[in-house]
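User: I'm putting together notes for a lab meeting next week and I want to include a structural view of one of the chains we've been expressing. I don't have a solved structure, so I'd like a prediction I can at least talk through. The sequence is below, exactly as it appears in our construct file.
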Amino acid sequence: MDDMLALARVLSNLVYLENLAFVQSFPPQMPEDNFILLMPYLASNSLRKLHWDITSHPTCAIAADSILARSIAAKGFPALRILRAPNDPEGIFQVLCRPRDRVDLPGDRFRPVTPTRATGATARLAAQARLEAAWRFPRFHVNVIDERGMLVDKFGLAGFMGTAESKIRYDLSPDPGARDENGGLIEIGDVTGDCGEKEGDMCNGRWNVHATPTDKKDKDRWWHVERGRWTGVEM
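Assistant: Thanks for the context. Below is the predicted structure for the 235-residue chain, given as structure tokens.
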């Protein structure tokens, strides 16, 4: 999709749209003769889940990101409940969502770092770093005064990142049945996959054969091979 006007028209015309994944390696542009006078520029009364991932600028927010963020802040998406923005280097989407105590998953810090686009564990760790940085800037300051009117202690409370009244959850975990390597989205391989089995390694019925294996190949297949675990996939 080349321009933001087309995206705005799609959102305004698909009045029953609830789930949208918008992934591009380049950002849609604003037409030169089109100026934004009022917000929200992008709007949908029905959209409940949005996956937004423009991968061309991994270190800074771009105009398309800003237009969407400002549109969300201007109540353009009243039904939105889940927002996934793997490429959110400045946290402009994270700050629109309700505060969370953690964004990362327990195993994220132990995954190998690869020079790929910010998806999955990398995105969650970046979001967690922004969250922890916000803890250092409390929203409330408490002064403790004794009975003589003397200040005996002072401290800060409630450093957080987000919007307290927001109904949107900032969720960077993959869809059920999907993988981080695919950006968290369901692909055809997730639907038709073998749940971790390898062709030729499935149970071949020889686990209960009582005869002695005749060669090494048969001996390797002697024991039963457990089938892969089934994973539910939601489209």
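A couple of points you could mention at the meeting. The chain has a mean pLDDT of 82. The first strand starts at residue 19 and ends at 24.

User: Perfect, that's what I needed.
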